[in-house]
Every structure is written in structure tokens, then in C-alpha cells.
Amino acid sequence: MSRRVLITGVTGMLGRELALCLRRRGYTVYGAARRPLDRWQDGLEWLPIVCDLTDDADAARAVRLSRPELIFHLAAAQASATRSPSAHELLEVNVCGTLRLLNAAAEAAPGARLVIASTGAVYGPNAGPRQRWREEAPLWPASPYAASKAAMELAARSLGDSLGIELVVARLFNLIGISPRSDSAPAHFARQLAAMMAEGRPRPLATGNLDAVRDYLDSRDAARALALLGELEGPDPVYNICSGRGVRLQWVARQLWRLSGLPEPEAPAGTAAPGGAGRAGTAQAGAGRVGTAQAGAGRAGTAQAGPDRAGFAQAGAGRVAADRLVGDPRRLRAATGWAPEVSLTRSLERLLHYWRSQVAAGGSEEEDAP
User: Fold this and answer.
1) Pairing status of strand 47-50 against strand 70-73
2) Measured by CB atoms within 10 angstroms of the end CB, which terminus of the chain is less buried, N or C?
3) 229 in the same domain as 208
4) For residue 31, what are the β-bridge partners?
């Protein structure tokens, strides 16, 4: 008989990839989400449970219905470039919601392992241009979202120990994947380029701090890493899930522009035209270069370090300080043999293809947060 697994936050970008990955590995997958499923119903391969983790009864019901041997807790209040949850929401969902799930598991699924998704942002920005965060590094979160995840880790570890629950924390760095709700920097670039391709009219990209450096990983590789942590015998308490390679946002923007096949936009009158083939997507726009956020874009003022805020610098604030967040995946590789299989270019190709299909179908660029 196949093992039973529960995934919270199953309708998110990573949740869907993990459900598909586990189904291929022979699991019976139950997926919990706060709202009934809509956009992800095509190709549905999990058994849905509506669950709001701010409600004790909902958390207990989800575990009771699924009776899992393994739980992947991905649900969270997410901070992003367009959404900043209140401190109350961050604590209620990310900390208290996790504790509700632990209590429910102890009651209805004793012996189940919990793999809890945290973030590489709990470390804060790297201390130097070559440093990569290892799991034993002290936590120094630089945003309320990252602080809530650090608090979640500490509270879950304490309660898990007292309840006798096996707990593994997965610190995920920046992921690239397909989701109608994603507003990561690469998704923001890809949405703009998809619209330009549909219109047949290139224009400068609205970006932010293109000097920011992030550790990108395809969501399918991340899902595979989580599955391996769920199956690992005698795991350590914490693992980084990352590529270990820092990539500048400027490279991401240029690569997406190259993949789009669009010509460079014409420089406005009185400004110098961009030079060289390597400068795709970096023409001047008005008084400032494309590498600065444009006023009114709804993405200004979010230049905090962390996976969910990469690449969106404050409009009109000038050049922001260097911003780098890169992890070290050696513990994960040594324990499981895992290594990334999807190149960054292939991830970006898939992302651009997805947003082209969304634009062609008339899909909205903005949706409610999960």
C-alpha cells in the first residue's frame, strides 16, 4: 500500500510541483489549501482538503482526514514585492499555524515526520561577496517575514521535541517556477516580456536593483529535494535547499530578454542608444535607466534582502547597497545525493513560456495572495 502524505499550501508554486513529484514516487497525496482549488484544477493529482491553519479545528480535520505518515508544511503568509502582511498575520499563520499543525499531528498522526518549509532569508544578507550560508550559521533575519520564519523554526523545534515529533526544517532559497500568483523578480520580468511579445512592441523593462545577487533553483528540483528529505533515514534537523550559486538580477533580466527574441526598445530622443548585444533590455527610459523601478509600478520601496523581495529597489532612491543571499547545499547533497538537474536557462524558458500562455489566455497579472 502506498504511503499517505499531506501537503499544506498545495496550490502554491512549490506545493503543486511537490504533489506531482510525490505522485510519481507512488505516494497517496492529500493537499490542503485555504481556499477551494480553482486555477490549478487542470491535471489535479491530489485529494483536496480545504484548511485554514489559523483555525484549530481545520488543522485537526486536515490531519484526521489524511492520516498521513509524512507531512510537508508549505503553507505560509508570504511577503512579496506587492504584499506585506501585518506582523499579526505573519505570526498567526507562520508561527501559530505551524504549532496548530504539530498539535494536530501529535493527536491524529503519531509517528508522522514533518518537513517544514522555512526560508534562506532567516540568515540575512551574506557577509561577503564569496560567502555562502551554511546551516549552522546564526540567524539574523532582515525583514518581518524572515523573522516570522525564524520564530517558526524555534517554536516548532521546541514543541516538536516535547511532543516527540520528528521534525526537519528545509530552508529554501529563491525558486523559479510557474504560478499565477508569483511576483518574484524573474516572474515580474517574464510577465512584462510576455505582454511585449503579444503586442509586438518592445519597451524598457521596469526593474529594481539589478545588482542584487540571489541563489536561484528550479521549483522541480526543490520539490525533489523535499521528497528526499521526507524519505531520508536519520536526518539532521536543518537543510538548505539551494543551488549554491549566486546570480545577479541583471543577468536574469538580460537572459529573459534574449529568450524572448525581442529587439531592444528604441531609446527616447536625446538619450544614448544602448550599446552591444549583451545589453538587451537595459535601454534608457526617460531620465533613468531601466535598472530602476518606475514610479507607479506598485513595486517600489521593497529592497529588503530575502527570497521574496529580490530585485525591487525603491524608485527614485538612487543606487541601493549590494544585496546578496546565497546558500550552501553541501549538507543536503552529502545526505541524499541530490543535485540540481534543471539549468537556470531552462527554468527561465519555462517561465517565459508560461507567462506567454497566460497573456494569450487573457490571464490577470495580479491575483490574491495564497
Assistant:
1) unpaired
2) N
3) no
4) 7, 48
* CA-to-CA dists, residue 42 to 37, 38, 45, 210, 369, angstroms: 10, 9, 9, 35, 20
Cα dihedral 295/301/307/310 (nearest 10): 40
Question: Could you tell me if 21 and 145 lie in one domain?
Answer: yes
Q: Please report how many Cα atoms fall inside a 13 Å half-sphere around the Cα of residue 355, on the Cβ side.
A: 28
- Do both 100 and 31 map to the same domain? yes
Per-position DSSP letters for 277-327, written without gaps between them = GGGTT--EETTEETTSPPTTSS-TT---SSGGGTT-PPTTS-SPPP-EE-B
Could you tell me which residues come within 8 angstroms of residue 158 by beta carbon, excluding any fewer than 6 positions away? Answer: none
Grid coordinates 546551516 are at which residue?
Answer: 135
The tally of domains found in the chain comes to: 2
Q: What are phi and psi of 48, to 5 degrees?
A: -80, 140
**Could you give the angle at the alpha carbon of 64 between the alpha carbons of 59 and 68, nearest 5°?**
100
CB contact set of 8 (below 8 Å; sequence gap of 6+) = 15, 32, 33, 51, 53, 62, 71, 72, 73, 74, 75, 101
286 and 226 both lie in a single domain: no
Asked if residue 365 belongs to a domain, the reply is no
* pTM (2 d.p.): 0.84
Which range of residues forms the domain containing residue 48? 4-177+217-244+327-340
pLDDT, tens digit (0-9, with 9 covering 90-100), for 305-362: 334 333 333 333 344 445 999 999 999 999 999 999 999 999 999 999 999 999 998 8
Sign, Cα dihedral of 100, 101, 105, 108? positive
Rounded distance, CA 167 to CA 112, Å?
9
